């Protein structure tokens, strides 16, 4: 690790914005019950601590079982409101209508109780690697797996409001995993227009900021990323730009030389993907300043907004295939 840069303190956006966003979301909310679900519980076990103004988020009280977890834009939790588009618009007119996004919440809150299973090797195209890992946590014990699910829920809400079909690789609905090869397979099977794996890092204190990980060009048994390297970079660059703007966070000071981008060939979730896919490490949970960000529901909402903006920008740049 090098410490060749001293990042300036993170800039914070004005604190009232998330409140406004939250209020607007609720007003728009013919999403109704869905948003109500969103506002009621927190996956981190801390009861979405009262200090934070959440625009919803967190786990749904009645998450459908089985995975991957699909939900249709504008629909309630398995209910009947397909015709209830936000704002009364025709869902087909929404900017991301017809687009499929796969969100991969990194790790699983229960992985630590299933070490044998998650340590079992799976093939990642070039070599073998453990099925999954437990992930990191802040020094005070806020788990990466709770963080990734929370941001994923917020992101899903934002993307569905724009008409995207969102599939999760898991939604806290299995005892461990899925394994990294299955995480990739779910994105492939869904025919995702874009896939994003959400993480936070566990580096030494003083390492700060976020970075997006792009797939390297990899060809191996069951892996060929040649078709996705280009579009994944486009997706990743858009996410870096929008995530920085929405959160005020700095690009990583320890990976990527200030670009906020890294390229890796050792991640099964990327090697085995046949659809444009990137990872994001939203911050370093082991750094006190970054930990203060990731434990803030306000900041997580900004993070989700940045991700939604970056993904949305990428999806809108794609040519319509005439469907
Ligand atoms: Zn992770």
Report on the architecture of this protein.
The chain has 323 residues and is of the alpha/beta class. The protein folds into 2 domains: 31 residues; 227 residues, Aminopeptidase (3-Layer(aba) Sandwich), CATH 3.40.630.40. The chain has 9 helices and 11 strands. The strands form 3 sheets. Strands 1-5-2-6-11-7-10 form a 7-stranded mixed beta sheet, sandwiched between helices. A two-stranded antiparallel ribbon has the order 3-4. Bound molecules: zinc ion (ZN). The site of zinc ion (ZN) has 5 residues, from loops.
Blueprint (SSEs and pairs):
Blueprint: H1 17-28, H2 33-38, E1 69-71, E2 100-105, H3 115-119, E3 121-123, E4 128-130, H4 144-161, E5 165-168, H5 180-189, E6 194-201, E7 211-215, E8 219-220, E9 223-224, H6 229-247, E10 261-264, H7 268-271, E11 277-284, H8 288-294, H9 297-317
Parallel strand pairs: 2-5, 2-6, 6-11, 7-10
Antiparallel strand pairs: 1-5, 3-4, 7-11, 8-9
Helix pairs in contact: 4-9, 6-9
The structure holds zinc ion.
Counted by DSSP, the helix tally is 9
Radius of gyration computed on alpha carbons = 18 Å
Q: Please count the beta strands (DSSP E, at least 2 residues each).
A: 11
The chain-level structural class is alpha/beta
Largest sheet: 7 strands, mixed
Low-confidence stretches: 1-67, 72-85
């Amino acid at each position: 690790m090098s410490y060749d840069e001293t990042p300036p303190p993170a800039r914070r956006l004005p604190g009232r914005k998330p409140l406004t966003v939250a209020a607007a979301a609720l007003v728009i909310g013919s999403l109704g019950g869905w948003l109500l679900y969103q506002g009621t519980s927190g996956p981190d076990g801390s009861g979405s601590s009262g200090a934070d103004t959440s625009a919803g988020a967190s786990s749904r009280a009645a998450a459908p079982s089985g995975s991957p977890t699909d939900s249709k834009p504008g629909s309630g939790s398995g209910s009947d409101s397909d015709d209830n588009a936000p704002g009364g618009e025709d869902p087909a007119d929404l900017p991301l209508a017809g687009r499929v996004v796969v969100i991969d919440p990194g790790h699983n809150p229960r992985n630590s109780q299933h070490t044998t299973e998650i340590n079992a090797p799976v093939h990642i195209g070039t070599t073998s690697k453990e099925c999954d890992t437990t992930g990191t946590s802040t020094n005070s014990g806020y788990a990466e797996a709770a963080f990734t699910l929370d941001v994923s829920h917020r992101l899903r809400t934002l993307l569905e409001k724009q008409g995207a079909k969102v599939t999760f690789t898991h939604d806290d609905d299995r005892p461990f995993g899925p394994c990294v090869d299955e995480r990739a397979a779910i994105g492939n099977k869904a025919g995702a227009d874009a896939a994003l794996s959400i993480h936070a890092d566990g580096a030494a204190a003083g390492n700060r900021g976020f970075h997006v990980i792009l797939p390297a060009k990899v060809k191996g048994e069951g892996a060929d990323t040649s078709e996705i390297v280009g579009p994944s970079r486009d997706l990743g660059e858009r996410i870096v730009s929008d995530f920085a703007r929405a959160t005020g966070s700095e690009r990583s000071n320890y990976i990527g030389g200030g670009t906020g981008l890294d390229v890796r060939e050792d991640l099964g979730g990327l090697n085995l993907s046949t659809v444009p896919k990137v990872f994001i490490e939203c911050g370093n949970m082991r750094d006190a300043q970054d930990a203060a960000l990731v434990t803030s529901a306000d900041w997580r909402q900004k993070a989700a907004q940045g991700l939604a903006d970056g993904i949305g920008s990428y999806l809108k740049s794609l040519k319509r295939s005439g469907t």
